[in-house]
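Work Package 4 report. The design task specified in the project plan requires that, given a folded chain encoded as structure tokens, an amino acid be chosen for each position. We show below one input record used in the internal validation round.
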């Protein structure tokens, strides 16, 4: 029996995951993004999974709503050799995406951006560095 289902394109999956990443970073629901675009949250789910391809004009609208350039959705895309960046830089940005995709990373990011005092921010960064150094020493 021949399988008739077409697998999603890796670029569509990547763009969808970047839409989800940015949406969750902003604390926006699929429903809210869908309402802003005049589509259902189910359609947003399909975009985020890569099941449905996002058209150019829709991607432009999404980038405007999520307040990022369209290029954001293609950063670190599979087969993207044009950047000329070294592997270390690519793995570094993947680490950031992985961190922000985690529940803890998202919570930390949301809380951190609410801190307006630069001194408090610096002290918090120093605290985290100290805790990490202590964990490495064990």
């Amino acid at each position: 029996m021949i399988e008739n289902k077409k697998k999603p394109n890796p670029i569509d999956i990547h763009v969808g995951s970047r839409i989800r990443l940015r949406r969750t970073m902003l604390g926006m629901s699929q429903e809210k993004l869908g309402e802003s675009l005049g589509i259902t949250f189910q359609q947003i789910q399909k975009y985020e999974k890569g099941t449905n391809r996002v058209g150019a004009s829709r991607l432009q609208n999404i980038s405007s709503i999520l307040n990022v350039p369209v290029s954001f959705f293609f950063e670190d895309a599979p087969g993207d050799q044009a950047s000329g960046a070294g592997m270390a830089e690519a793995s570094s940005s993947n680490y950031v995406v992985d961190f922000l995709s985690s529940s803890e990373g998202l919570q930390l990011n949301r809380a951190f951006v609410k801190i307006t005092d630069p001194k408090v921010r610096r002290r918090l960064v120093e605290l985290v560095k100290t805790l990490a150094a202590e964990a490495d020493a064990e």
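Confidence is low (pLDDT under 50) at residues 82-92. Validation will be extended to a larger panel in the next phase.
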